[in-house]
Amino acid sequence: TIFPEYLAPLELSLIGKARRSGLVELAVHDLRDFTHDRHRTVDDAPAGGGAGMVMRPEPWGEAIDHVLAAGAGERPGVVPTLLVPSPSGRRFDQAMAHELAGLDWLAFACGRYEGIDERVLDDAAERLPVRAVSLGDYVLNGGEVAALAVIEAVVRLLPGVVGNAESLVEESHEGHLLEYPVYTRPASWRGREVPEVLSSGHHANVAAWRHEQRLRRTARRRPDLIAAWLAEHEPTPRERELLAEEGWVG
Ligand code: JA8
User: How far is CA 68 from CA 80, 135, 178, in A?
Assistant: First the structure.
């Protein structure tokens, strides 16, 4: 990165704690440390013309060589997977988070401006797995925020980082449906009541209500997920009714 300070949140909260307890090791490298001119230049005009600037290959090549050499000293024979945040990358999701959590070592190349000279990625790919990763269909000012999101999603999956109760919540999110709404005390707040069923003590009714909420919410907000859910579940007549009420059309 050319903005190491952008990654300061990695000291905080769950990730900071995981680092301090040795569950994960993280290092941030300043790309400008791998320049050799007095202005520490990292960008230049795009070949072929056009708007903006492109990141020059030389500092990136040296930075990647340095990261490889530094890490390989600690774990001989292990190479990182290089993740390159980019709006043109493969869409990041929970399944990819699990896949990445199973790898020994991830490295992130956070581009700025119009991106990194493509030869950097072609060159790295001769030595390492390289994957362009996108958070979604929008453009950020650089890869740092995307890297933070990927790191947080991956680190919380590492053994010992998040408590057991939270891991169970996470598993239910992977079943194609969105989460049900949650409430706490007070029972009445600004004239709004906690749904009565949740205070009934009737566990089966609570579970049925929550399932209904998940299905309704998914049909309304993320109709694209319903097809995947239907591929794995034969809906009951009640579930069909809910989907129809929410205007879901298959
Ligand atoms: C960007 Br420049 C740049 C680098 C990485 C990413 S990921 C995303 N959504 N936008 C922009």
Answer: 7, 25, 39
143 lines ligand 1 (CB under 6 A): yes
| Residue 80 CB less than 6 A away from ligand 1 | no
Of 35, 72, 70, 83, nearest to 55 by C-alpha is 35
The residues facing 84 across adjacent strands are 132
Residue whose CB lies within 8 A of the most ligand 1 atoms, among 31, 86, 141, for a mutation test: 86
pTM, 2 dp: 0.95
From first to last of its 250 residues, what are the pLDDT tens digits of the chain? Answer: 999 999 999 999 999 999 999 999 999 999 999 999 999 999 999 999 999 999 999 999 999 999 999 888 888 889 999 999 999 999 999 999 999 999 999 999 999 999 999 999 999 999 999 999 999 999 999 999 999 999 999 999 999 998 765 664 555 555 799 999 999 999 999 999 999 999 999 999 999 999 999 999 999 999 999 999 999 999 999 999 999 999 998 7
How many CB atoms neighbour CB 18 within 10 A? 20
Could you identify the atom of ligand 1 that is nearest to the CA of residue 84?
5
